[in-house]
Write a structure and sequence with these properties.
Helices cover 41% and strands 16% of the residues. The protein is of the alpha/beta class and 192 residues long. It has a 5-stranded parallel beta sheet, sandwiched between helices. β2, α2 (55-73) and β3 (77-83) form a beta-alpha-beta unit. The longest helix is centred in the middle third of the chain and has 19 residues, at 55-73. It is globular and about 50 Å long.
Length: 192
């Protein structure tokens, strides 16, 4: 993929997922003028082996780290949905949250985790976030009668996203050269 999109929406299950999986692409596109928006689905409050920290304390730290990583990458906006880590569900409410962001941002490209991996372990939150995002892109964000209240009450016009790119896929079909932005990716990872 050679062309830089104008608007990008990245749906991230946990703090640091975007940095591990697609930060090189995000940094490249942001440096080339793309408006990049992050949606962080969970608070990241469970991923630790430290028995001295509470989930709430960890969530505060993880969200602060995500803000710093987004700043380093040139992300224009970070929306935090604050779902509990490990508890994402494929619900109408969660889908509506993602549809709202798609209609707000009007992205050319949406990046999210591959929901269909078969041959390797994959965190349940990754599967759910990928599936809900894919469903939100088509048809819910596209058709005004899905979540009609977003159109009527919030003025969010329907939007048809041209491209969805999965990270963590077992069958990749898209390559983006991140050679020039790998250093920025590393800096963003070090924020976590």
């Amino acid at each position: 993929m050679e062309e830089t999109p104008q608007r990008v929406l990245v749906v991230i299950p946990h703090p640091d997922d975007g940095e591990f999986w697609c930060a090189g692409t995000v940094a490249r596109w942001a440096s080339q003028g793309a408006s990049v928006h992050y949606v962080l689905c969970t608070d990241g409050g469970k991923g630790t082996s430290d028995r001295q920290i509470t989930s709430q304390e960890l969530a505060v730290t993880r969200e602060r780290e995500q803000l710093e990583a987004a700043r380093i990458l040139g992300v224009q906006e970070l929306v935090m949905l604050h779902h509990s880590d490990g508890e994402l569900e494929d619900t109408q409410d969660f889908r509506k949250e993602i549809v709202r962001q798609i209609r707000r941002v009007q992205p050319d490209v949406v990046l999210c985790p591959e929901p269909y991996r078969k041959n390797s372990p994959w965190h349940r939150d990754h599967r759910i976030a990928g599936q809900v995002t894919l469903d939100a892109v088509f048809p819910w964000a596209r058709d005004h009668l899905h979540f009609l209240e977003l159109w009527e009450q919030e003025g969010l016009e329907p939007h048809k996203t041209g491209t969805v790119l999965f990270w963590g896929t077992e069958l990749p079909d898209t390559h983006i050269d991140v050679g020039e932005s790998i250093g920025v990716k590393v800096q963003a990872l070090l924020a976590h």
